[in-house]
Amino acid sequence: MSGQTLALALLGLALVLLAAAALARRRSGLPWGRVLAEDVGAGRAPQRPLYARRYGLTGKPDYLLEQGGATIPVEVKPGRRSPRPYDSDLMQLAAYCLLVEESTGAAPPYGLLRYADATFRLPYTDAVRDELLDTLEAMRDLLEADDAERSHDDPRRCAGCGFRAVCEESLAPDTPV
Question: How far apart are CA 26 and CA 48, in angstroms?
Fold first, then answer.
């Protein structure tokens, strides 16, 4: 094989790989951007958690992307299918936005939530931040309370709950876990 033929073959292979990468990115629903960190790959070194001392909050988004100089948190829920995002998932993403803000000193303009068939953008506004801080405060109040009422009507959630054995409001069948 001549040098020119080899060069053309390598160029063709590079174009095929680039097209495959572009297709994979398009299917993922995630925008182009440099991946700063990820917490989804098996066999990779674990990402260090982000920490916000003044809020007592720690977490690791699935991805941190850099776009236009901003750090964008991405949470991926590959098994979830819904035409609109769950409020709990949006609050989790808002928490990652707060962690990015506290860790980098710059608030991200938005966060991304990826479901199986859709990607949702959560603008990280003052109102979203305030709602998150109110939610965190309410959660801390419930943790300190002697008793807390069940906040849902889903037996599947009860079945997977760590407090099922001692919960008087459990909706799960009485079979051992």
Answer: 28
